[in-house]
């Protein structure tokens, strides 16, 4: 048995208003006048003075707004990398991603592809990256995915939706400022928050569970219960705690794996473009046979916050389309092995998945 030697984020700052320290954190990392800092910022913050006025640009530093209606594609990453190479004479001093999972994943992927030849699609998989990335910083503005701690950046490529998983993927620096999440709309808060809840349920009920994952997973699970089911937290406390739940949930799956909801949600994402958070919710709502307690709790949370999930999104699909989703879901073997056990293939047949997808 070889145990994973897991890379972690090297530095992290936590606290309301800690975003104000960005400048002083970046200053020592500047490599020169011609080596800019590139800030990828969620385009929801375009014109939002409260946030953008605190990003100070020197020399040829630049803010690039990233649209978040679709999840990142390998072609988009390659284009962003090319834009940088064409515009500047030197490699950037750093890449800073300010936003949700999408923008953080874009920042990670660009920082990797600036120092690794070829196209990003060729690096989708495990440990294909050869050279260390450019210095990269993650600043979440919505909590739940755990993208701020993970060693992956999830990309949709021409043939697969799969992360670039590598020791060089984790951020060199993360700034956790819960105040940045104050304007997240309720539905999105719920979907992305539930990504964290589902990470915990899948990790804690998986066959890969170990004391490392369990200790993080239990803490995150407890925080999610407090945030989504209890009434005693102030808005600020709730934001602070969800940011830490996301972190712990990410740490929990780092050393284990996700499960049924994620495998099936990838199928929905690949075929229909359903986004990660809401996709997990749509699937998880039907997984009472696999995660009875987690699903019961999820339904309570949904009700408490008046969330109505889209229904019938698979109603008009063709057999070929169902088959595509089933192929994508089944290809994620470690997720099934974690969820069901080594003999998962005897239990998870195409027919089982078809029946589940037809309910969604
Ligand atoms: P997101 O990045 O898709 O953003 C969701 C929405 O929230 C967007 O419309 C965005 O504009 C908005 N938003 C973000 N911050 C806001 C704020 N402060 N105020 C108002 N609106 C705000 O959301 P997400 O759920 O964080 O990320 C999903 C993405 O993360 C997917 O692409 C998924 O594949 C990826 N992901 C990555 C990992 C990883 O480990 N790398 C893990 C899970 C998910
Ligand atoms: Zn997830």
TrEMBL record:
Keywords attached to this entry: Oxidoreductase
| Segments forming domain Fe-containing alcohol dehydrogenase-like C-terminal | 191-301
For this protein, the record's InterPro entries field holds:
ADH_Fe/GldA, ADH_Fe_C, Alcohol_dehydrogenase_Fe
Pfam families, alphabetically? ADH_Fe_C, Fe-ADH
Cite the Alcohol dehydrogenase iron-type/glycerol dehydrogenase GldA domain residue spans from the record: 10-178
Entry annotated with the keyword Cell division: no
Q: What is this protein called?
A: Iron-containing alcohol dehydrogenase family protein
- Organism equals Winogradskyella marincola
